[in-house]
Amino acid sequence: MPMVKRFFMAPEGSSFVFGPRGTGKSTWLRQHCPDALWVDLLDSETRRLFAAHPERLRAAVLASPNRKQVVIDEIQKVPALLDVVHQVMEECPDRRFLLTGSSARKLKRAGVDLLAGRAMNLSLHPFMAAELGTAFDLSSALDLGLLPVVVSARNPERALAAYVGLYLEQEVQAEALVRDVGGFSRFLEAIAFSHGRLLNTSAVARECQVSRSIVEGYLAIVEDLLLAFRLPVFSRRAKRLLTQHPKFYYFDAGVFRSVRPAGPLDTPGEIGGPALEGLVAQHLRAWIAYGNERCRLFYWRTKSGSEVDFVVYGPGTFFAVEVKNARAAYRRDVRALRSFREDYGAVEVCLLYRGRERLLVDDVLCLPVDEFLRGLHPKRALSLREQTSP
């Protein structure tokens, strides 16, 4: 497919660029840093050389005085290089380091805080609808997701099917993150039933027939591998009793569909609804990461069961979104949004649904989800005034 211009922008200084495999970190850097000194740690020979002698990096940088940018791809493969990066930053303040990573696990153990204040933490996400423009197709995004490595593949279905297997082979097994790879694979399937729902680790443990502590460990691994995230409840100045459990999401709708077991007893809504909700979640996360990093993403749920899928809160932004995988919008669909607005008068509320028309239901704007996603741009405010402008 033609090169897609990404909304992701790196600052002038040094940065960590985190993102799951296949989100396009290397592609973006090769496009924007063509003259950089490049260290590809996915290459086994390069990884072996630098793992044996991390100081080789300093020698390589000093031997290339005209290369002001240094890219280290998949830095978590050789965490010891961070000490050398820190040293070179002190010696050569004119050098800019861009360090990519698809796992934060080893970096946490290796002391990534050594670079605190010297390198920003950035993240790259799957495609946004507005990045793809006319090439964006909602049905395809729900079935296959928006991972660049999948979208650009000649056979997207096969690429998606191989994606999770690649993680299991190249990350989980190679790094010996778990002892029982089969058990971890069963966990990936079982936790898929929690996608878009309140996370109950005890129930997942019973399904996997393992202890709750093992499930918590597995959860930490998928989060460190950037494959999933937990969404906290919005509890600022709460006027009602709220649940305390987070919600769970895979980072991409296609990955969720790939690992979620499906059979004759599954209705389309049981998979399509969570997939649509996850697609909106990944867009909101990208919107925050690419220019609105002071905002945070939450959900809201009362003890009585009233729930709003997403709440975006930050300086100048207070926006609540409910997502419905339905072709029509009814008064019952906006009740939770109206309750949330009663508690927080300053919030803008919006229902996203699968229909084609904008509707106003009980003074709540209902937008086609396709239209909302296409209009979501990091440089535009998350506001109904933006969404309703000509």
Task: State the main characteristics.
Rossmann fold, 14 strands, 390 residues, 17 helices, 17% strand, alpha/beta
**Percentage of residues in DSSP E strands:** 15-25%
Order of strands across the biggest sheet? 9-10-11-12-14-13
Largest sheet: 6 strands, mixed
Kindly, what is the distance between the CA atoms of the first and last residues, rounded to a whole number of angstroms?
Answer: 30 Å
Mean pLDDT: 91
Q: If helices are DSSP runs of H or I spanning 4 or more residues, what is the number of helices?
A: 17
Give helix % range. 40-55%
Poorly predicted segments: none
Rg estimate, integer Å: 22 Å
β-strand number: 14
Task: Briefly note the structural class of the backbone.
Answer: alpha/beta
Overall shape: it is globular
> How many distinct folded domains?
2
